[in-house]
Amino acid sequence: MSSKGPVIIITGTPGTGKSTHAQLLVEESPVPLRHINVGEWVKEKGWFEEFDQEWQSYTVDEDKLLDELEPLVAAGGVILDWHTCEAFPERWADLVVVLRCDHSRLWERLEKRNYHLKKIQENNEAEIMQVVLEEARASYPAEIVVELKSESMEDLEANVARIVEWTASWKSERSSEA
Q: Which of 4, 18, 85, 176 has a Cα at 20 to 30 A from 40?
């Protein structure tokens, strides 16, 4: 929503490659972008209500998170990288990228991260049921939600190239309006 840079939300089930995509975009985008790994940020800043031992995850204080993100998003040029997107107001997003991965490949990735079996099962089920994709489609206009396969290095490179092309188009549209 800013002329300084777009606000891109990269979302998907844990293990789909959100952070890797975001880091490459920061390096390759023709528009300056800042990557915010929301999950890490929440932990660093203490913006959570509790740690759920059973699920090995934090219960995020969404009000605090959104209050802190608001000025950064208003300034533009931000990639928000998180396993969920429905907490972010519709007005924030210029592009919502939902990364998808075959559940068997996702299972292997989460095992390599030493996730607990219960968490691997939960995330696999979420991927199979397209939970994050449906959440994005329900929260944002269809024309800004893009579903991308993220299973290989070729997918990663193609996805980043596609989003870089989108940011270049976003930039040229804004400069022609000026």
A: 4
